[in-house]
Amino acid sequence: MKTSKKKRITIGTVNIGERARELVEDAFLRNRISSGRYVRRFEELLEEFHGVKCAVAVSSGTDADTIALSALKEDGVNEGDEVIMPALNFISVANSAIHAHLKPVFVDVDRKTFNIDPDLIEEKITDRTRVLIPTHLFGKPVDMKRVLDIAEENDLFVVEDACEALGSRYKGELLGTFGIFGTFSFYVAHIITTGEGGAIITGDNRYDGILRSLRSHGRACACKVCQLNVDSGECPYRFDVEDGDLEDKRFYFLRIGYSAKMNEIEAALGIEQMEKIEEVITKRNENLTYLSGILEDLGEYMVMMRQEAHEFISPLCMPMVIREDVPIERADIVNYLEERGVETRPTFGSIPTQHPAYRFLGYEYGSFPNAEWIGRKGFYVGIHQNIDKGDLEYIAECIHDFFKLKGLR
User: Fold this and answer.
1) Within this chain, do residues 158 and 106 fall inside the same structural domain, yes or no?
2) Of 274, 305, 329, which residue is a domain's last?
3) Mean pLDDT of the chain, nearest integer
4) Three-class SS state of 136
5) What is d(CA 297, CA 284) in angstroms, rounded to the nearest whole number?
6) What does the alpha-carbon distance between residue 271 and residue 267 come to, in Å, rounded to a whole number?
7) In whole angstroms, what is the distance from residue 138 CA to residue 377 CA?
8) Are 62 and 168 within one domain?
9) Distance of CA 44 to CAs 51, 98, 275, 315, Å?
10) Which residue in 190, 310, 355, 400 is the catalytic one?
11) Is residue 180 a contact partner of residue 157, using CB atoms and an 8 Å limit?
């Protein structure tokens, strides 16, 4: 498609500097590209940043959610138990529950925050409910006080899906640190990227060996050589298996796991970006603040993400939803922006009622009116760290011009 602007303003960005290139080259020279010392260093940087005892890098944010849910089976969560999550979400969150052999149960979202509506959670709780997954959609923090209060009152685990919210804070505390687990994605369009990749963090060190076992097929050995993969040494417990016929502990499996390790090349990219994480987060937040300000006059036509006093947003993007009484179709404004070099994406939509994959659950359209409205009328644009003030002004100019064209300005 031809555009009137040479520079395309993208949703996401990739920054690969000299530091990452040097680390990648070193991995090649050492003939070590599977999970190793760089993966462990990337995990340490995540631990230091979040102030937690354990970070486990995996192959995607989807695997992070799946492994986190699977780890809870060590603490009494059983197959078929229910996981409450927002209806408006990227599909992977629901998929993760299915992969972990749990049942996703959906709750509608708040129209202003795009996040799960705490007022609607308790009516969905049954005697099979064991887990709450609040997703901090687009980087906007969920009302975690309400979620944690509900979880405590009903004896539920909280797994924070912070895949789009690395660096966001709720009442001064980093997202991902409120629940038993926090999960992150490092997909190409996210706050930082390793190409693909994800991570699980926890403040409970009991889960360290379990998470590392689950990401590597369910292996029994949790020693440094086998689980951390920081060197090529011989496992000191290799033949320390007391039962059965399988005496080699490296090929002895305690649980059903996954093949979900991050590799050294991905970790090299992540190390460089985590070393600059404050700069990345600050720039994204500044871009959100600036774009919100210069689009504020369009509030009567669109609902947009706003940063409130109790939070700090490290935004994935800038979401906008056309109000229901405004005679504009999403396709019209999206096509207008794309033709002018502004990349867009639709908001994710209601998983149980707008995606055929989940029709088997039997929800009827209209069951989640807010999620469905956002799915029908919402879109977002990029505000990543490589977008400058001139780009933001150009985005705002295009959007204002569109509304003028439609006779609404």
Assistant:
1) yes
2) 274
3) 93
4) coil
5) 21
6) 6
7) 16
8) yes
9) 10, 30, 11, 23
10) 190
11) yes
In order of 83, 300, 321, 328, the CA distances from 325 in angstroms are 34, 10, 12, 9
3-state secondary structure of 384: coil
| Annotation marks residue 99 as catalytic | no
Q: Give the single-character DSSP code of 74.
A: G
Pull the structure tokens for residue 102.
């749990």
Q: Using CA atoms, how far apart are residues 215 and 202, in angstroms rounded to an integer?
A: 15
Which two three-digit tokens encode residue 375? 């799915």
Domain with 304, as residue range(s), is 277-405
Q: Tokens in use for 6? A: 């040479």
φ and ψ at residue 122, rounded to 5 degrees:
-65, -30
> Which contacts of 358-366 are long-range, i.e. CB under 8 A and separated by 24 or more positions?
358/94, 358/104, 361/104, 363/106
Specify the pairing of strand 157-161 against strand 169-170: unpaired
Looking at residue 370, its amino acid is: N
pLDDT tens per residue across span 254-309: 899 999 999 999 999 999 999 999 999 999 999 999 999 999 999 999 999 999 99
Domain shared by 334 and 299, yes or no: yes
User: Is residue 200 classed as helix, strand or coil in its secondary structure?
Assistant: strand
Same domain, yes or no: 255 and 316: no
pTM > 0.90: yes
Here the tokens at position 255 are 């649980």
106 in the same domain as 147: yes
- Indicate the pLDDT class of residue 247, thresholds 50, 70 and 90: low
Question: pLDDT digit string (tens) for 165-216?
Answer: 999 999 999 999 999 999 999 999 899 999 999 999 999 999 999 999 999 9
Q: For residue 248, what is the domain's CATH number?
A: 3.40.640.10
d(CA 267, CA 123): 42
Number of domains forming the structure of the chain: 2
Strand partners, 169: 174, 312
Among 255, 223, 259, which residue's Cα sits nearest to residue 240? 223
CA atoms 17, 23, 29, 33: torsion sign: negative
Whole-number Å distance between alpha carbons of 346 and 338: 12
CA distance 21 to 34: 17
- Rounded to an integer, the average pLDDT of 319-341 is 97
Same domain, yes or no, for 200 and 281? no
Q: Does 7 reside within a domain? A: no
Contact assessment for residue 328 and residue 405, using Cβ atoms and an 8 Å cutoff: no
Q: What are phi and psi of 71, to 5 degrees?
A: -65, -30
